[in-house]
């Protein structure tokens, strides 16, 4: 198997600059020189670079340091929001199935019963609070 030579700092800077924007600095890391830390002039160039190389077989790119933590937090928050949206959509589907075919009159009666139950619960809680004081 023919081994491909590791790129130089200059060649990496050129490849990344051509695709994503000006590179301020490239530093080869590790004994083998098969890792590098690239710093873009404009921080907004970083995300397209990481996204582009996320599925590449040629090279990988990741966030590091504080930016890595920020991006992980954003991803976690986005996943939580998507989970909440899926849960709400599922609740909505269940409610639609539950009351499917309900006439307008039946719906109004059901809602009136629900309001009455809530009022009774609130009154009972008020009575309990009054007894406690």
Task: Annotate the secondary structure layout.
Elements: H1 9-20, E1 23-29, E2 35-40, H2 46-53, H3 65-98, H4 104-132
Antiparallel strand pairs: 1-2
Describe what this molecule looks like in 3D.
The model has no long low-confidence stretch (mean pLDDT 86). This protein has 133 residues and is mainly alpha-helical. It is built from four helices and two strands, in the order H-E-E-H-H-H. 62% of the residues lie in helices and 10% in strands.
What features would you highlight for this structure?
single chain; 133 residues; 4 helices; mainly alpha; 2 strands; elongated; two-stranded antiparallel ribbon
Strand arrangement within the widest β-sheet reads: 1-2
User: Rg to the nearest angstrom?
Assistant: 29 Å
Mean pLDDT: 86
Oligomer: single chain
Percent strand: 5-15%
- Could you give a short account of the major beta sheet? 2 strands, antiparallel
Q: What fraction, in percent, of the residue positions are helical?
A: 55-70%
Structural class: mainly alpha
Distance between the termini: 85 Å
The tally of helices reads 4
Shape: elongated
Find the count of extended strands (DSSP E, 2+ residues): 2
Unreliable residue stretches: none
The helix/strand series, from N terminus to C terminus, equals HEEHHH
Outline:
With 133 residues, this protein is mainly alpha-helical. The protein has helices spanning 9-20, 46-53, 65-98, 104-132; strands at residues 23-29, 35-40.
